[in-house]
Automatic annotation (TrEMBL):
InterPro entries: ZSWIM1-3_RNaseH-like. This is ZSWIM1/3 RNaseH-like domain-containing protein. It comes from Gigaspora margarita. Residues 6-90 form the ZSWIM1/3 RNaseH-like domain. It holds the Pfam family ZSWIM1-3_RNaseH-like. The lineage of its organism: Eukaryota, Fungi, Fungi incertae sedis, Mucoromycota, Glomeromycotina.
């Protein structure tokens, strides 16, 4: 983990009948661009305090774990936990979730009275 400058954190939510959550940290290889999982958390809870305890544990057990960037989806709990555990790390959202959010917002506003600027953005998406 010494060379892990970019880590990806993703959670699966309610993917099983017991309603446990699976969180995975994926290490991004700086040369190949591929990634592989390095840590897992299975939890009944999806709270930022639970994620923070896990991230603090990983940080304390691996003193070389000092990522510059965390890539995440659009989950507030994950953002809060990373901000509290890794103060110097930047948080980036996956492009898919940013695009999805834009489309959802523009689609909601998309109607008969279309602002020309919104129409241009809508077409670019």
């Amino acid at each position: 983990m010494k060379t892990a400058r970019v880590l990806c954190l993703d959670g699966t939510h309610r993917m099983n009948p017991i309603v446990f959550h699976l969180f995975t940290i994926i290490m991004h290889h700086p040369t190949t661009g591929s990634g592989y999982p390095i840590a897992f958390l299975i939890s009944e809870f999806k709270r930022s305090s639970t994620l923070k305890r896990w991230l603090d544990f990983l940080k304390n057990e691996n003193e070389n774990l000092i990522p510059d960037i965390f890539m995440i989806d659009d989950a507030g709990e994950e953002i809060k936990a990373i901000e509290e555990s890794f103060l110097d790390s930047s948080i980036f959202l996956y492009y898919f979730y940013v695009l999805h959010s834009w489309c959802r917002r523009l689609g909601h506003k998309h109607g008969a009275n279309i602002d020309p600027n919104k129409a241009i953005v809508w077409q670019d998406l």
